[in-house]
Amino acid sequence: MVDRRRSQRLAFSELQRARIRTVHEAVIERLDGDSAEVTTTHSVARGERLVLQFTNLTGEVISNFAHVVSCTPIACDDGTQWRLTLSLAPVDVEPQRAQ
């Protein structure tokens, strides 16, 4: 079947909003009320919005919206890691837009 082309399955007439979900492992260094500090292998931009999800001591999965306050590189033996300072809000509260 040489030169066989597939037809386009979906076409948008204008730009559409989309959401991409990626999962990155992180170590929670500090969790204090409405702020957290985590270490990860992925850098992010200041002002970016994330969801921080973890399991507490009773096995309950906790989800918070997170707004990146800062992202600082950390040198380590196996490359660069990033320390993120996050401002947190519960998932039932819509986070404020970054400025």
Summarize the structure.
The protein is mainly β. The protein has no helices and 5 strands.
Q: How would you characterize this protein structure?
A:
The chain has a domain at 31-90. The protein has strands at residues 26-32, 35-40, 49-55, 61-76, 79-90. A hairpin with a 5-residue loop joins strand 3 and strand 4 (61-76). The model has no long low-confidence stretch (mean pLDDT 82). It is extended, with a radius of gyration of 19 Å. With 99 residues, the protein is mostly beta strands. Helix content is 0%, strand content 48%. The chain has no helices and five strands.
Task: Record keyword descriptors for this entry.
99 residues; mainly beta; five-stranded antiparallel sheet; 5 strands
Residue-averaged pLDDT, rounded?
A: 82
Unreliable segments of 5+ consecutive residues: none
Q: Element order, helices and strands?
A: EEEEE
Proportion in helices: under 10%
Beta content:
over 45%
Overall outline: extended
Strand order of the largest sheet: 1-2-5-4-3
Biggest sheet, open or closed, and with what strands and sense?
5 strands, antiparallel
Structural class of the helix and strand makeup?
mainly beta
- Total count of strands: 5
> What is the C-alpha radius of gyration, as a whole number of Å?
19 Å
